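Lay summary. Proteins are chains of building blocks that fold into shapes, and those shapes determine what they do. In this project we predict the shape from the chain. Here is one chain we studied, written as its sequence of building blocks.
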Amino acid sequence: MNLADSHCHFHLLEDGPGNIESVLRDAADNGVAHFLNVAVDVERHELLLELTRRWPAIAISAGVHPSGTGEDPDVDGLAALCSGEAVVAVGETGLDYVYNSGDLGWQRERFRRHVRAARAVGKPVIVHTRGAPEDTVTILREERAHEVGGVIHCFTEDWDTAQACMDLGFHISLSGIVTFRSAESLREVARHIPRDRLLVETDAPYLAPVPHRGEENRPALLRHTVECIARARDEPPERVADATRENYFQLFPLTRA
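And here is the predicted shape, written in a compact code that computers can read:
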């Protein structure tokens, strides 16, 4: 297999950037050759830039996680961070009503700023959504996110939400959660996602797939997720690998450089 991990965080692994060579070797041994290292804050933006300079197979995004508590740039500030060719996407951004509570108007406004910045620089949006399907779709519609498209990362919602997001030009990315015993409804969604809208990810260091659940996740484990999706779709794993890799390059064209 030749796989693309569409969402991971090398800089959050236990050993951090100091162990990336080993992580990349393990990934290569398991057929993973392309990576999108997704930002969760802007304080480490220079670190992510250095990662992609040293290892061109690692692409990067720029943005602030929905639950982030650090610097929170305005639209112009976000657009400035995302304007260079080194940055292939905006985010991760979105809404999280599971790990945050109370008045979350600030989170919705942060999400809107990211979509506006993405439209300003013409780059896709990486969306995190937990417990907020209706508001997520509403904001994507109102902010004209279809103009740039993007991906709903680590998708865990139902088919109606997947369809609404795909209608806005978004891809659906599945993580190790799809391998969990309790995730039959998600595997049902996986069966029906059109091949040209499907992505796969690790979200490393989080959400390691079965049979490594509970361990620190690494890109090398992506093949378990692909094999599970392939079984759900009654397809060869190589077909899922090839489709998701090509979708990765189509959605994030700067990763071909």
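What the prediction tells us: The chain has one domain: 3-256.
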